[in-house]
Structure formats: structure tokens, C-alpha cells
Amino acid sequence: MNRVPVASSNLAEIGYSAETHTLEILFHSGHIYQYSDVTESEFAALMNSSSKGRYFDQFIRYSHGTIQLR
Question: 22 forms bridges with which residues in the sheet?
Fold first, then answer.
């Protein structure tokens, strides 16, 4: 999955697969997580948010299945 760099104090890069509805995030800590069942509208809202970290914490982190890749 391709990720793009984002301006955030916590999130370094964000990627999304519309085919699998999977969101992938590289954190500044070096950890990579994938979140399942993320809709395209949720992804768009995250990317358009003025605070991506805050949006992620409020609407994605605890609402979707998680797999740690690294």
C-alpha cells in the first residue's frame, strides 16, 4: 500500500486501499498499523481534517479492527 506523508505530530504517513477499505498509518514512533472497514468518506475526512491526529483518535483508533505490522 502506498502511503503519503502528512503534517501531524503523531502520524507520519497515511495510506488507504479503497478495494479492501483498509487504512494504514505509519506513526512517528516507527510503528505501522492497519485499520479495517474504514470507509472512503472516513478516509477523506481524515485527510481533509485540520488535525489528523485528533480526527484519528476520535473517529478511527477505537472504532475499527487493528493489526500491527511493525
Answer: 17
* Total-model pTM: 0.94
8-state DSSP, 61: T
Q: Give dist(CA 29, CA 17) in Å, integer.
A: 23
Distance CA 13, CA 55 (A): 15
pLDDT tier at 1, thresholds 50, 70, 90? confident
- CA distance to 3, 18, 53, per residue, from 35 (Å): 14, 12, 15
Percent of the chain predicted with pLDDT > 90: 97
